[in-house]
Amino acid sequence: MSRKIRRVVTGHDANGVATVIMDSDATCILSRPNRPGVTLTNLWQNDKTPAAMERHDDPVDGPLILQPPKHGSVFRIVQFDPEKPEELAKLDGKSAFAEMGASHAVVEDARHPFMHRTDSLDYAVVLTGEIYMMMDEEEYLLKAGDTIVQQGTNHAWSNRGVEPCQIAFILIDAV
Fold first, then answer.
1. Measured between alpha carbons, how far is 19 from 164 in angstroms, rounded to an integer?
2. Nearest Cα residue to 97 out of 113, 109, 78, 75
3. Could you tell me which of 103, 113, 104 has the C-alpha nearest to residue 156?
4. In this structure, are residues 80 and 131 in contact, taking their beta carbons and an 8 Å threshold?
């Protein structure tokens, strides 16, 4: 089970004074049986660039979609629990990604069932734990504090350790 993530959002009151306008646990969360051990938590998103600065509504109130909005961005944290190879072998990546509106993103016949590609520029920071970033032919062990700039390439995440791994992602729509 993924830990709750507190989300604090700043803004301005009616007099233009800086204040906190939201302070609570994030509620746009996706955990699913088609991808056990992975929990996505959306914290914020924008649907245009430049971003609107005076939002007081919650822009992530709705279904969690993998891709950022067209011309927009999304900020999320994903927790990857340790994988169980015997369970992983039975899973269907296309079904799992379909639950996020992205069955088209899955790479067919890849070496990991959740190999995928998004049309986004992704900035990521490993917050806790460690994880393998699998590419078409190579893989890289990433640890807490490591950063990733993902430029629309095929990739999958594989936690072969014993502790959960959390990664903060900012996905920006790209062409």
1. 34
2. 113
3. 113
4. yes
120-137 per-position pLDDT tens digit: 999 999 999 999 999 999
* Amino acid making up residue 81: D
CATH architecture of 27-173: Sandwich (2.60)
Query: What's the whole-number mean pLDDT along residues 22-51?
Result: 93
Q: Where are the beta strands (DSSP E) in 32-89?
A: 38-46, 73-80
Nearest to 156 by CA among 100, 88, 99: 88
Nearest to 120 by CA among 152, 155, 75, 72: 152
- Reading the block at residue 57, the tokens are 């509504």
pTM of the complete model beyond 0.85: yes
- pLDDT at 1 > cutoff 80: no
Task: Give yes or no for a contact between 174 and 121, defined as CB atoms under 8 angstroms apart.
Answer: yes
Who contacts 100 (Cβ-Cβ below 8 Å, separation ≥6)? 30, 40, 64, 65, 66
Please state the rounded mean pLDDT for residues 74-88.
Answer: 94
Q: Distance between CA atoms of 93 and 97, rounded to whole angstroms? A: 6
The CA distance from 45 to 55, in Å, is 11
Query: Which tokens is 107 given?
Result: 């790479």
Question: What is the three-class DSSP state of 87?
Answer: helix
